Structures are given as structure tokens and as C-alpha cells.
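Sanity check. The docking grid for zinc ion depends on where the pocket ends up, so I'm generating a full predicted complex first rather than guessing from homology. Inputs follow.
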Amino acid sequence: MRIINLISDLIFPRRCPVCDEVLSKKDGKDLICAACFPKIRYIKSPKCYKCGKQLGDDETEYCEDCRRKKHLFERGFALYDYHSVRLSMYRFKYSGRTEYAQFFGRDMAEHFGDEFKKLGIDAIVPVPMYAAKQRSRGFNQAEVLAKALGEELGLPVMNSLVKRVKKTLPMKMLSPAERSANLKNAFIIGHFDVKLRKILVVDDIYTTGCTSDAVAEVLKAAGISEVYFAALSIGEGF
Ligand SMILES: [Zn+2]
Ligand SMILES: [Zn+2]
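Predicted complex below; grid placement will be based on this.
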């Protein structure tokens, strides 16, 4: 296994998730450049009790969005401010830099792992991609991220527990009402034969929570009692 890793490092040298340069072993950090690490902005307290977004100066306990809208998930955890990792997210998603997931998964586990353990999460579920879209892209970035997080936390990842059965439009083009309509009947529950009580849904970006709500809805209809989500970044998406 180690030899395979070494060969793969030679052919596909690991790149920094921030600057995309090949990482040098001398640099100290093995998954990100030491100089790039401070460029990432983490979501800081005070955070919204519901979605985990950083609160504005005029907000207390809940963000404006969560005050307006009742979400179907219990609580969300978000790691980065979207704007500080925008290009990284873009390459992760559209340029096949799936290797970034190792840093992202580890970072997420370091920040939220204890809380996930305390909650007693049974399994991780990535937000699914429509099958034809996943075939053309070659991977689902939420799945890649969920796998890295699952390995860090020793939690099972269930890629087929929820399936996306409708070709949906990119959310960035739509108004809030259109977003909900776009996701109507988009997800179905897959087969499962183990007892599941608490699920952590994982995605790369959280914007308004419509997707998390739609996934939480089908999980709850299938008898899952608590649904949490973890997003790598939070803010305006693509
Ligand atoms: Zn770098
Ligand atoms: Zn909120």
C-alpha cells in the first residue's frame, strides 16, 4: 500500500488546496502549504444555532435566514467562509482536484469531530448527485469529502442511502421559491437494513439550506429521527 502511495505521489504530486502548487515535503504541513494555511477563513463564533453560519453584528442566536424559514434538519456545522476558499472549491468540484478532500476531511474532523461523536452520529450521507451528471463529471465531490471525513472519524459512509432522481437546475440561478420547486421530488430514500437514528449529511457548500432540507425530508420520512449536516463552506455558492 505504501509503495502504491509513493508511486502515485510521483505521478500525481499532491497539490495545496489553496494555491494549487505541488507541495514540498520540506514545508512542514503535508496537505497544505504553511504560507497558504492562514489564508483560509474559518467560520467563527457567534454562529447561528441552527445552520452554523457566522452571525452578523445585528443578529443574535439565529441568522436572518433561519428566523424566516423553518429548517427540517436539527443543526448544521460549517467550516470555512466560502469567499476565502472560493477558488479551491471551484477546482475541487470542476477541475478534478479530489485530492484536496484529504485536507478538507481531516480539517473538518479536527474542528467538529468531538461534537459529531457527542451527538452519536450513526452514518454519514453525502448529498447525492444525479447519476448522469456524476457519470460525466466522474465523481461527486460531496461523496469524496464524506469518504475522507468518514475515514478520519471511523464512521460508515452510505452513498446510496439517498438518491437524486431528478435532474435539477443549478441553484444559483433561482429565487428562493424556485429553489424549493426545483428540489421537489428530487430525492428518494435507498434501501437500508440497519437501524439508523442519527445521520450527518455532508456537502461542499451551504447557501440557503434548501438542499439540506430536501435531503432531511426524505431521511425523516424514512424514520431517521435526527438529521445534521456538515458543509465545507458556507456563503454564496456558484
Ligand atoms: Zn499553497
Ligand atoms: Zn442560520
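Relevant for the grid: The chain has two domains: 1-39, 40-234.
Also worth noting: The CA atoms of residues 50 and 115 lie 15 Å apart.
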